[in-house]
Design brief:
This protein is α/β, with parallel strands linked by helices and 325 residues long. The chain is built from 13 helices and 14 strands. The protein has a six-stranded mixed sheet, with helices on both faces. Strands 9-10-14-11-12-13 form a six-stranded mixed sheet. Strands 1-2 form a two-stranded parallel ribbon. The two termini are 37 Å apart.
């Protein structure tokens, strides 16, 4: 959006009942567009933030198994996040919806919407242009025909993980709706470099690191593992930290991730945190109660020439292991 407009956007993770008002109070008469991130860990929070920000447009990028403890399970997550759709519907605004996501399409059934996706006649359609490499390349078009997509430029990004593909397509959809030129949209997507430990690639003297430890939940962790297992690298390791705020689902969700890892035999596994250690006590994986213990192990292991995925909840402090890698 900033390729065409004077934009104010949420900085860092100022997305709660304090951060959203702070962002809104930063709007000046020079700003043409404000992009406000809203975060939540319980029902009613998005409704409150919507009443404060009064958005004209909205997007829910996905609904995953995050903050299950506060939301009261996945149905609570759906109800809590869709409060944004309800507010915008009442305001007669418009939402941007990931058309391939049946849950989002169902929740936005009564909304005026713009859609993006891959398989049907959406307003914006796209296709991934590469697999097996760290960075995503994709194509997008306003017409769903094989020839139209094939003629579209390949956008090569600096984002890691095919799970970011729909986020990129979402950005292209919103830019296109607000009449940002195609070339400017592609330029913005190509130039964006993550620096917040979300889908970020970092090369050290010894290894290549995929930093994705800003936070974690079962949905994002399974997606990260699946993507990582498909990378064409011979020496791969995953360092996984506990997923927090899962409430009664905690044990089953950590066990589910371990079961997934058992099916992936092309990577070494290091687990960090008491939840993973408890769930994995019968496994053969290296497991440590905290990141300091993991650092000592990794330092002595002197790992070299590896591609390493580092994924976990913020509270596990996986940044502490980086100096060992």
């Amino acid at each position: 959006m900033s390729k065409k407009y004077n934009v104010l956007a949420t900085k860092g993770n100022l997305n709660n009942h304090i951060g959203v008002p702070l962002t809104l109070l930063s709007i000046t008469k020079e700003h043409e567009m404000a992009i406000i991130e809203m975060g939540a860990n319980h029902q009613g929070e998005i409704a409150l933030l919507s009443s404060i920000a009064e958005p004209d447009f909205g997007v829910i990028t996905n609904i995953g198994k995050a903050h299950l403890e506060g939301f009261g399970g996945i149905e609570g997550v759906k109800k809590g996040k869709s409060e944004l759709y309800k507010f915008i519907q009442d305001k007669k605004g418009k939402v941007f919806v990931h058309g391939d996501d049946e849950t989002l399409i169902e929740l936005a059934a009564n909304n005026d919407k713009v859609t993006y996706g891959t398989k049907k006649l959406y307003d914006i359609v796209g296709a991934i242009a590469n697999t097996g490499t760290e960075f995503i390349s994709f194509q997008w078009s306003t017409r769903y025909t094989a020839s139209a997509l094939k003629k579209s430029p390949v956008v090569t990004t600096q984002l890691v993980g095919v799970y970011n593909y729909h986020n990129l397509l979402c950005a292209a959809c919103i830019g296109n709706y607000f009449k940002v030129e195609d070339e400017k949209i592609n330029e913005a997507l190509t130039e964006y470099t993550p620096s917040n430990n979300r889908s970020q690639l970092q090369k050290t003297a010894n290894n290549t690191l995929i930093l994705d430890y800003y936070n974690a939940n079962p949905t994002s962790m399974s997606a990260a593992i699946e993507n990582f297992s498909n990378l064409n690298h011979s020496n791969k390791m995953v360092i996984l930290g506990d997923m927090l705020e899962l409430g009664n689902e905690s044990t089953s969700e950590h066990t589910s991730i371990l079961n997934m890892l058992q099916q992936k035999n092309n990577m070494n596994v290091v687990l960090v945190g008491p939840l993973f250690c408890e769930a994995g006590k019968t496994s053969n994986y290296q497991c440590f109660q905290n990141s300091d213990e993991a650092f000592n192990y990794l330092k002595n292991a002197a790992i070299k020439n590896a591609t390493i995925l580092i994924k976990g909840s913020r509270g596990i402090k996986l940044e502490n292991v980086l100096p060992a890698l």
